[in-house]
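Let us practice reading a record.
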Amino acid sequence: MVRMTVRVTPDGMKQMRGTPARGLLELVKNALDSDATDVDVSFVPNAFGGAAQVVVTDNGSGMTPQEVGLFFRDMGSSWKHSGSTFTTTPSGRELLGRRGRGRFNAFGLGSPIRWESVARGTVEGDLDPSEDARVRTVVTWRDDEIEFNAEVTDAGRVVTGTTVTVLDAKPSADPLTTRHGQDELARHLADYLFRYPEVTVTVGGRALTYTDLVNRSTPVIVDVTEVKAIAPQELAEFANTATVQVIEWSAPVAKSRIWLADRADATPRESTPMRITAPGITFSARVEWDGVPSLIDALQSDDPTTAFNRFLKVIRDAIRDLMRQRSREVRSELLPEWRAEGSYPYEEHIEGAVELAERDLFDIVALTAAPAFSDAKPAERAFVLRLIKETVRSDADDLRRVLEQVLELEADDLADLDAVLRRIPLTSMLAISKVVTDRVVFLDWLDNVLNDEIWTKKLAERGGLQDLMEANTWIFGDMWQTMAADRGLKHALTRLAKSGYLDIERAETVYDADGTLVRVDLLLARSSKALDRRQYLVIELKRPSHRLTKADYDQLDNYISTVMADAQFADGRIDWTFILVGRSVDDYVNRKRSSLDRPYGLADTVRAENGATYKLWVRTWAEVVEDARDRNAYVRDHLGDFPRQADMDALTKAHEHLIADRDGGN
C-alpha cells in the first residue's frame, strides 16, 4: 500500500470540479494523452434512465506507481509542462492536456472516483527492457479529501490501459447520455479525430466521428515542383504534387492549424499555424505528401529550412485562394439572407468613407460570430446583429464581452479578433481600416503598373519609382523612417545623427574606393529599444523594365564594402539590410540569391567583428509586391471583390505625372 498526499485544499478542489461535460472531456483527453487508440465511455443507468456511474476505459500505456505521483500532482502543475520536454505521445500525437487540471475536473461528474490502471512495470519499479511484466495501480479518491491511497499489485501479462469509474454520478451528468451531450463531446474532439484517423472514441455505444461536424471537405492538388527545385538531391524522388484536404466545420472546433503527413492514413509529423482567416468559416487542413518526412528532418536539424518554408508558402497560398473564394461565397449567401429576413442592420447603399468602414468591420465581426446564432429565429438574429452593430460603434471591450458572454463563443473563435479588439478603440480601428484598404488598392495598382508595358518603359528610377517608394515605405515593412532619398551618404549620416540613430558629431562626405561620391536611392531607419539595436534599410531601385545583372550586383556589393570600411558607421549595434530590386534577374544574380544555405533571395550575409550585421537581398518587383500583400492578407481576404476599378483609375490619374507623355515621346 502506497500513501500519497495531494497538495490542494477543499476550496481549491471545488474550483477545479467544473461541469460534468468538462469533466468527461478531460478524462477522454487524459486517455488520448496516454497514447490510447480506443477510448470507450459507458454509462451505468439509474432507475430514472440517467447515469448512476460513468466509466471511461482506454487501451493506452497506463500509469505505473511512480507515474501516479506525477499525474496526481499539485493543482495546475501538469507533468506535461512542469520541467518536461514532451509535447507529443510516444506515437507522435499531440498532447491535449496542458494545465494539470484534468483529473481534478473529473470531479465535476461526481465522487468518489476510482482509477484502475495497468502499465508495463513491477511493484518495485525496476523493469528490465527485455521483461514484459505488468503492474496494476488502483486509486480511489473523494472530492473532499486531500489524500488518497494507491494500491499496487502485479498484474501478470494483461493488456495495458486505464479504467476510470465515477462511482456516484451527479444528476447533472445525465445530459451526457443524450445525443446532444455526445455531439458536444464530438465537437471538442472533431479536429483531433480528423488529424488522427487511427483513434476511435465511443460514447454510449456510438462511435464519435469528425464527419458529423463537416460542412464541406475540399481536396486541393498543389504543385510542389518549385519546392523540389530548392533541394533537388533530398526531394527529387518524391511526387510533384501534394494533396491538401481542407475541412470546413459546421460548428466551432479547435484552433485552425495545418497538419503535415506523408500519406492519407498516417499520423501527422508536424503542425503549423494556419495564419489564414475566413469570416464565418471554421476550418482545418491536412497536407499529404511523401516528401514531408524529409522536410521535417531538415526543419529539426541545424540546416536552413528554405525548402520547408517555401513548401508552407505554397500550401498556404493554395489554401488562401480556396478560402478567399469560399469567403466570397459565404458572404454572398449570408448577407443577402440577413437582408431578406430584415435582420441586417445597415442600408444597402451607404455614403461616406467612415460609414462604409464601419459596415465593413461589422461584416467581419458578424460573419466570424455567425456560427453562434445560425440556428436562431430571424427576430433573435436581428437582435444579435443590432447588438453587434452598437458595440462596433462603441468600444472594443464591449464588443468582446458581447461575443464571449452573450454569444458564448469559444476562446479560439475570438483569437483572430481579440488581439486587435482588446487594444484599440473601435473609432481608431475604423480609421486604421481606411489606411489598410488604401494599401490593398495601391498594391493592386502597383502590380498592374509593373506589368503594363507603357508604364514600365516610361517609369524612371528617379522621380518615378523613387517617389512612389518614398511615399509608401510600408511596402518594405512598418515603422521605417526615411533618412535619405537620392542623396549622398553625407546627407544620410546627418539625418541619422539628428534622429538619434547614429552617434557622430559631424558627418563627412563618403567616397568609394574609386573616389566616386556614394549616393543612396532610399535609406530607411528604425530602432529596437529592447535590444538596443539600430536597423538601416538601403534600397537600390532599378526601373521596372530592368533585368538585374552582375554589374548591378557588384555595384551594391561595392556599396556595402564602402559602408563597412567607413569609420562613421563603426557601430556594432547596427543591422544593415541592402535590397536590390528589379524586374527580373540574370543567371549570375539568380545563383547568388538561390544558395541552399540561405533563405531564398538572401545573396550574402556578414557579421563584422564589432557585432554589426550586413545582409544583401535580391528581389524582383513581383516578389516585393507579393510580400507586402501577404502582410495585408487578413484585411484583403475580408474585402470580397475589392478593389473596384474606380479605385484603380483614381490612382492612375493621381500618378500620371510620373511618366512623361504616356501616349508618345521618349
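A brief commentary: The radius of gyration is 31 Å.
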